[in-house]
TrEMBL record:
Keyword terms of this UniProt record: DNA replication, DNA-directed DNA polymerase, Nucleotidyltransferase, Transferase
Gene Ontology MF term list: DNA binding; DNA-directed DNA polymerase activity
NCBIfam families, per database record: holA
Protein name: DNA polymerase III subunit delta
Swiss-Prot/TrEMBL GO biological process terms: DNA-templated DNA replication
C-alpha cells in the first residue's frame, strides 16, 4: 500500500505492517518518519534492532538468516535495511521477495533508500512484493507554499506563531535546507517568550541556511519566480559556485525550450520538471528564446575572458530572461 507522510500517524495507531519502505532525498523527513516507526514498534514489543547498510556492504544471506532465526531474547525485533542510492542485486531481490512472501509477526523490516525511479524501481520485483504486504512512503522536497505550511505547523507544535514578514524572512533564509529550517524553529522556541515571532526574532536566531544547486536555479526560472532566481544566484555565488556551472545549466534549458517551442518532442524529464518546462515554453516566444541565446553567448564570452564585464551580471540577465522577467536594457551590462 502507499502512504503519504502525513498519513503515517493515524496508520501507526493500528497494528504495524510487516515491512515499510521510506524513499526520497529529503533526509529530515525520512529520519522523522523512521523515528515514528521505531517508537510505534517499541510500543508493540519490538525491542531488538539490527541494522544492515550499503555503506559497509549488505550481506543478504546474513539478512535472511537474521530474519528467519529466533530472537536472542525471544522477543520481537526490527531489521533496518539502509540502501541509500543503491538497490538490491539479483540475490538481494530474491531474498527480500522470499521474506515478504512469508513475513514473521515477530520481525519488522524497515527499508530506507533514495528517491524511487518511476520506471526502474517501481517495476522491480522486490518493490512490487513489498507494496503488496507492506507500506511505501515517498518523501519529496518541501518548497513554495508547502514549505510555508510546513513551517506554520512546525512553529505551532512549539507554541509559536510567526507574522507574515517573519515567515517570509524565515522561508528566504532556510529554503532548500529543511533540516536547517527545523533547527531554526527550535532556536526560536527557546528565544521567543510570548509565542509571537517577529522579523527581528528571526534575524536574531537564523543565519542564512539556504542550500541550492544549479538545478534549483533552472527550476526557479521555469516557474517564472524572479525573486527566487535572484536569491538563488546570490546564495550560489556566496558559496563559491563558478559561473560556468550555472551557464551550462541555463544553456541546456535554452536548447530544450527552443526545441519545444519549435514543435519538437518534449524532453525526457521527471514529470514535475517536464510540466514546469512546458508551462515555461508556453510563456516564452521565439523572440525571447533568441534574446536568451544572445545573452548566453555574451555570458560565455565574458566567462572565457573574450569580452569585458561581470560574469555574474550576465548570468543574472540570462536567468531573468528565461524567467520571463528580463531587466531593462539600460540595466544590462
Amino acid at each position: 500500500m502507499r502512504l503519504r507522510p502525513e498519513q503515517l500517524g493515524k496508520h501507526l495507531s493500528a497494528d504495524l505492517k510487516p515491512a515499510y519502505l521510506i524513499a526520497g532525498d529529503e533526509p529530515l523527513q525520512q529520519q522523522e518518519l523512521l523515528d515514528d516507526l521505531r517508537r510505534a514498534a517499541r510500543d508493540q514489543g519490538f525491542d531488538e534492532r539490527h541494522r544492515f547498510s550499503s555503506d559497509t556492504g549488505i550481506d543478504w544471506n546474513a539478512l535472511r538468516n537474521e530474519a528467519q532465526s529466533m530472537s536472542l531474547f525471544g522477543g520481537r525485533r526490527i531489521l533496518e535495511l539502509v540502501l541509500n542510492g543503491k538497490r538490491p542485486d539479483k540475490n538481494g531481490s530474491e531474498i527480500l521477495r522470499e521474506l515478504f512472501a512469508a513475513p514473521s509477526p515477530d520481525t519488522l523490516l524497515l527499508i530506507n533508500c533514495s528517491k524511487l525511479d518511476r520506471r526502474k524501481d517501481w517495476n522491480s520485483a522486490w518493490v512490487k512484493a513489498l507494496d503488496e504486504i507492506g507500506a511505501i512512503i515517498e518523501v519529496w522536497p518541501v518548497e513554495g507554499n508547502n514549505l510555508r505550511n510546513w513551517l506554520q505547523d512546525r512553529l505551532a507544535s512549539r507554541g509559536l506563531h510567526a507574522s507574515d514578514d517573519a515567515m517570509a524572512l524565515l522561508i528566504e533564509r532556510s529554503e532548500g535546507n529543511l533540516l536547517a529550517a527545523a533547527q531554526e524553529v527550535d532556536k526560536l522556541s527557546l528565544l521567543v517568550e510570548n509565542g509571537q515571532v517577529s522579523p527581528e526574532d528571526v534575524q536574531q536566531a537564523v543565519g542564512d541556511s539556504s542550500r541550492y544547486s544549479p538545478f534549483d536555479l533552472t527550476e526557479a526560472t521555469a516557474q517564472g519566480d524572479a525573486h527566487r532566481v535572484m536569491h538563488i544566484i546570490q546564495t550560489l555565488r556566496a558559496e563559491g559556485v563558478e559561473p560556468p556551472v550555472l551557464l551550462w545549466a541555463l544553456s541546456r534549458d535554452i536548447r530544450m525550450l527552443d526545441g519545444m517551442i519549435a514543435g519538437g518532442p518534449p524532453p525526457r524529464l521527471p514529470p514535475q520538471r517536464a510540466r514546469a518546462m512546458q508551462a515555461q515554453a508556453q510563456r516564452l516566444n521565439p523572440q525571447q528564446i533568441r534574446a536568451a541565446q544572445a545573452s548566453a553567448i555574451r555570458a560565455d564570452q565574458c566567462v572565457k575572458g573574450m569580452s569585458k564585464g561581470d560574469p555574474w551580471q550576465h548570468i543574472t540577465n540570462l536567468a531573468l530572461r528565461l524567467a520571463g522577467k528580463p531587466l531593462p536594457r539600460s540595466m544590462e551590462r
